[in-house]
Amino acid sequence: MTTIQEELLPGTRRALLHRIAVAQSEGRSPSLVAAIVRDGRTVWHGARTSVDGHAPDENVQYRIGSITKTFTAVLVLRLRDEGLLDLGDRLEKHLPGTGAGEATIAELLAHTSGLAAESPAPWWERSPGALRPELADVLGDDPFLHPIGRRFHYSNPGYTLLGALVEQLRGASWEEVLRREVLEPLGLNRTSAQPSAPHAGGWAVHPWADVLLPEPAEDLGRMAPAGQLWSTTGDLARFAVFLAQGDDRVLSAETVREMRMPAAPAEAADVADGVTYGLGLQIQHHDGRLLVGHSGSLPGFLANLTISVADDVAAVVLANCTSGPLLAALGADLVRIVAVAEPRVPEPWRPLSDVDASVLELAGQWYWGTYAFALRLTGDGGVSLEPLSGNGRRSRFRANGDGTWTGLEGYYAGELLRAVRRPDGSVSHLDLGSFVFTRQPYDENAEVPGGVDPEGWRGIR
After folding, report:
1. Is 360 exposed, middle or buried (0-12, 13-18, 19+ CB in 10 A)?
2. CB 385 within 8 Å of CB 395
3. The pTM is what?
4. Is 70 helix (H, G, I), strand (E, B) or coil?
5. Distance separating alpha carbons of residues 291 and 289, to the nearest angstrom
6. E strand residue ranges, 171-218
7. Would you report the helix, strand and coil content of the chain in percent, each value rounded to 5?
8. Strand order in 289-298's β-sheet?
9. Which residues on adjacent β-strands are paired with residue 449?
10. In DSSP terms, which residues pair with 419 in a beta bridge?
11. How far apart are CA 279 and CA 400, in angstroms?
12. If DSSP codes are grouped into helix, strand and coil, which group holds residue 185?
């Protein structure tokens, strides 16, 4: 892979290098490597290391821990898109006898299944997977800590179950299915379940002295779908492009957009912090921008993948230490540096190639009661509806091909918008999920629920 550094301005490259240098120095990481993605490709790569003359490049593997969960989620959503399961299905329907089958597949993906965060002792990340050969060994005697579906509670055993579900429905190992259905189509040739040279060694750094201890690199066995993978900044950069744009060989753009949507109820503290979880992706509101991705850690390694779809910027950061640099904050900072220094240049405005006159006549101002809205035609053949002033309910709508539209977001997501016409073909009003929108506030010529007072508008003396 060729690193294309000249595509960012020198000042931006300097700021990125400074930020990772501070993180590696203050976090006391033996090495730290990072990449920036824009326009569907890597545009910057940087590394810092404690070994003179041996900075890691974009092909050096690090363990990526729980970023593995995003890969597992992709496999599950492929099964859904093929019609082999529904996200609302209980696990028991497809993988019976686990003792956790009452949770739905969506709840497992979003960490709302109520399952425990960890498997029973010993600590699974630092002990051989052979100690947990069966799902019962991963779940323990009492796997549920919370009511199913009521709260977000991060669960590694939950993703172990999802990996077992993939194996059950595909008739092959999780590792084999992942390689065949995701890694090979996306060209992620340096992502693997076992380390492949060149790869970094994992280290623990003493909290009160600048000395190191090598960490064991255990095979996680049954727990592999929750955190087994090794990867590189080069491969994760390509994976970031896929998570932002989709790839029909793996998942459509619509499905990866679904992964990026909140799917878990947020705790009160999460609301304050602006964080939630989608389907295999962490979501946060940070410095005024929406970021999606995932962090990962295993003894000896830290990893982070952060994407701002709106800014068309993604950051990958990998380090080989058990604790130290805060990679989630670092990833968000790297995205911010590029987005602020070199904001995305919008595509040129272009007029529509064609427009339906019956749709064009709907454009303009509408009123829901006394609330003023504007309906606009969008370049993708749909329409948008948004308040003329202040914050309020707004949505884009997808054309259904029969003169109606379906809401795509917010309060109106899934709701049907249609134009109601009089016998002579003229438009009486818009109906949006039973809400009546008229050309004038409480238009007396339209069918306003509750009617319009015959004396009309008046002042008060």
Report:
1. exposed
2. yes
3. 0.91
4. helix
5. 6
6. 203-205, 212-214
7. 30, 25, 45
8. 41-49, 31-38, 313-319, 301-308, 289-298, 282-286, 275-277
9. none
10. 430
11. 26
12. helix
